Amino acid sequence: MGLFDFFKKDKESTTQQASLDAGLAKTKTNFFEQLSKAVVGKSTVDEAVLDDLEGLLVHSDVGIETTVKVIDRIEARVARDKYVSTAELDRILREEIVALLEDNNSGSTAMLDRAGNSGQPFVIMVVGVNGVGKTTTIGKLAHRFHAAGKKVVLGAADTFRAAAVDQLIIWGERVGVPVVSHGMNTDPASVAYDAVRKGVELGADVVIIDTAGRLHNKVNLMNELSKIKRVMQKVIPDAPHEVLLVLDGSTGQNAFMQAKEFTKATEVTALAVTKLDGTARGGVVIGISDQFSIPVRYIGVGEKMTDLQLFDRHTFVNSLFKK
Ligand SMILES: Nc1nc2c(ncn2[C@@H]2O[C@H](COP(=O)(O)OP(=O)(O)OP(=O)(O)O)[C@@H](O)[C@H]2O)c(=O)[nH]1
């Protein structure tokens, strides 16, 4: 890495950090206001403080099971160290959350590092219900790959809604990458097949396929996703290399429910959690990454093309606890 690249990278990470800090601002304000209320007038972490902390974590959408794990860890620490001051609670909580994410999120390799390494396009099938930010996330991903010098092809296989196809085409133009589309109400599997073929023809590094996510008809969803996979495999036998489920972080327990349903319908290999900037309950990322043994790879912290970040547990928790 040359000196220029080093500074460029350094500047990039500073910008990323700033947008993460801004994106998590609502969650932070909410969490720390509540946390300081919980410990006001108390010098040690006792049962009452732990009870308040439990309520606070649940309220931040960390989820019951994960909250119980965090509280158990802190309780064990309090029992071991005998005296834990409330002033230390921040640090302890932060350490325990990082440790929890470490247990559950190991082995997540950034897609960008893997894309284009095998000589064939790296195929990403993107799933998720309408409105969660699926198309936007695909646009942002395309931008990320494109900006990193990767050749990208998009496939508009969400043919159920005209707007989804149009929106993807607009993203393609904005980013400067080709979009394979057959229009609305066409066979999604045929779009996916053509997109993967186009990717091979063009020597693309990445092919990203948008799909329709109609959860209310699980059998149809399952069949449609299986069919899309089967036809892709006629072109590239081990495709898709990633099935990315997009979840709206501002919908709290709904996001958990969707993750449960989609993981039943297809084999999901990675998660993207969007709209964290619009919620005070960003704890959902901690819960989701703990509950499903699927790595959270990306988080959305705004509407701009550059507002999609690689999820890194340390950076995330540091930002959350930064005052
Ligand atoms: N604030 C914010 N808005 C986001 C983020 N990601 C997506 N959005 C917005 O969420 C809205 C829905 O996003 P879409 O990409 O249209 O959602 P979709 O899941 O593709 O839904 P359909 O296109 O309706 O299938 C859009 O207005 C996006 O700009 C994010 O990380 N932060």
Automatic annotation (TrEMBL):
Q: Which Gene3D superfamilies does this UniProt record tie to the protein?
A: P-loop containing nucleotide triphosphate hydrolases, Signal recognition particle SRP54, nucleotide-binding domain
For this protein, the record's SMART domains field holds: AAA, SRP54, SRP54_N
Binding-site positions, GTP: 128-135, 210-214, 274-277
Q: What InterPro entries does its record include? A: AAA+_ATPase, P-loop_NTPase, Signal_recog_particl_SRP54_hlx, SR_rcpt_FtsY, SRP/SRP_N, SRP54_GTPase_dom, SRP54_N_sf
Q: How does it sit in the membrane?
A: Peripheral membrane protein
Please give one Gene Ontology molecular function term for this protein: GTPase activity
Statement: the UniProt record of this protein carries the keyword Transit peptide: no
Q: Give a GO biological-process term.
A: SRP-dependent cotranslational protein targeting to membrane
Question: What is any one of the record's Gene Ontology cellular component terms?
Answer: cytoplasm
Query: What does this gene product do?
Result: Involved in targeting and insertion of nascent membrane proteins into the cytoplasmic membrane. Acts as a receptor for the complex formed by the signal recognition particle (SRP) and the ribosome-nascent chain (RNC).
Q: Which domain of life is it from?
A: Bacteria
- Kindly state which reaction or reactions the protein catalyses: GTP + H2O = GDP + phosphate + H(+)
Q: Does the keyword Cell membrane apply?
A: yes
Return the protein name. Answer: Signal recognition particle receptor FtsY
The parts of the chain that form a coiled coil are none
Q: Which UniProt keywords apply?
A: Cell membrane, Cytoplasm, GTP-binding, Hydrolase, Membrane, Nucleotide-binding, Receptor
Assembly and partners are described as: Part of the signal recognition particle protein translocation system, which is composed of SRP and FtsY.
The subcellular localization recorded is: Cell membrane; Cytoplasm
Give the EC number: 3.6.5.4
SUPFAM superfamilies referenced in this protein's UniProt entry, alphabetically? Domain of the SRP/SRP receptor G-proteins, P-loop containing nucleoside triphosphate hydrolases
